[in-house]
Amino acid sequence: MTVVAVWRVPAVRYGDAHRRALWGGYAGFAAALWLSTRGVMHAVEHIPVIDLNALLKHFASTSAILAALTYVATSYGKTSAPVVPKHVAVSRWIARVAYKAGVVGVLLLTPLFFTVVDRTTPSADFVTDHAGEWGAAIYMNVFYFFPLVTTAVCGYQWTRAARRAETALMRVGLVLMAISMWMGLVYVAARMTLIRVAALAPLDPGIVQDTVTATAIWMNALFLIVAVGASIPTTTAAAAHWRTWRTVHLLYPLWRDLMEAFPGTSLYPPGSRLREFARSHTPLDVRLDRWTQDIADASDELHYFAPAELLIAAEEAATSHSDSQPAAEAHWIKATLLAVADRQPSRHPSALLQTKPFTDTDAEATWLVRVRRTYSEITTAEAQCVLARAEEGLVAHEPT
């Protein structure tokens, strides 16, 4: 749950309410699960409030539940249709009511926790140690009201959505999410039943412990299915994200050298590789689009410094290369950058590089990666030789 929450952190900044709500659900449940671990429980115990860990865990869970309801409500987007399907209208109404109920619930849980719950001694497990107490039963029933509603709504909606999924991955993911919600409904019902029965009639401590352990295992399985179910539909997006990151990573040396040669071409001066990939204010796909445009703009500027014969010399240097056309362009760029260092435009500038029939940014980036591959292999001495041959050819063609 933590890994998925961290993976989805960019959703918080991009202003997408749909993805932001999904992140909130994962972050809230991850926090609740961490608060159940011994290390975190031991750290919280240093705060002089008995059983504070339980209250914080219930706050985190309530926040995650409200985020899940928001995610379901925003999944349908906005519509101007005069008639909204009943199940959509009900989900949106429940989500709206849940916000107010959530605030009331948190405000109600806090005084109940500090007044009706017997906290004279710290508890190792809140439910087990407070089983049979009316105050704890009231407190826990207020808390479980929210997951009871949420699991029912989400389970119903995701079951319907799974039948209408457009892709197999989306269908599998929604089926797993729906299963996890119905499991959550069973979990909440079992916990509420245990708490109420224990308050009405004393139960054997062994029965209470076994029930709590069994439902805890059930809940952990539920969270695992949630994480897997939500991740499956995003595998395609994750693969595309990785390809984009790798392309940006490969293009960095070429982009940096061109931006250093022509300051002002990019929106910001190039930084180190670490700094560039630490920037998080711009999505990777947008950055890739900018970098390809920056490289194209800088290449247009290069031709003013390249001798007229440089492209021919670059093509001759790349003749034996296995990928000759990108290699020729790489030699042309590398040699021209040496000419740019003198800051003296050529008296007879080279023609612009041949226009390629790119259909989108990905196609252009793929070509530039091929160029960059050879570009990084060309030494300064090799580039100087190409530039010298071009200048010699230019001199040979000049009229005497």
Task: Describe the secondary-structure layout.
Blueprint: H1 2-7, H2 10-13, H3 17-34, H4 38-44, H5 52-74, H6 86-115, H7 126-129, H8 134-163, H9 168-200, H10 205-231, H11 235-261, H12 273-278, H13 284-302, H14 310-317, H15 324-340, H16 361-375, H17 380-397
Task: Characterise this structure.
This protein has 400 residues and is mainly α. The chain has 2 domains: 2-235, no CATH class; 238-397, no CATH class. The chain has helices at 2-7, 10-13, 17-34, 38-44, 52-74, 86-115, 126-129, 134-163, 168-200, 205-231, 235-261, 273-278, 284-302, 310-317, 324-340, 361-375, 380-397. Helix 5 (52-74) runs parallel beside helix 8 (134-163) and helix 14 packs across helix 17 (380-397). The chain is elongated, with a radius of gyration of 31 Å.
Task: Offer a few descriptive terms.
400 residues; mainly alpha; 2 domains; 17 helices; DUF6545
Describe what is shown at a glance:
This is DUF6545 domain-containing protein. By secondary structure, the chain is mainly alpha-helical.
In total, the number of strands is 0
Shape: elongated
Given helix and strand content, the structural type is mainly alpha
> What string, H for helix and E for strand, traces the elements in order?
HHHHHHHHHHHHHHHHH
Number of domains: 2
**Low-pLDDT regions:** none
User: What percentage of the residues does DSSP assign to strands (E)?
Assistant: under 5%
Report Rg. Answer: 31 Å
What is the helix fraction of residues, given as a range?
over 70%
Major β-sheet, in short?
Answer: none
What's the helix count? 17
Distance between the termini: 76 Å
* Arithmetic mean pLDDT: 82
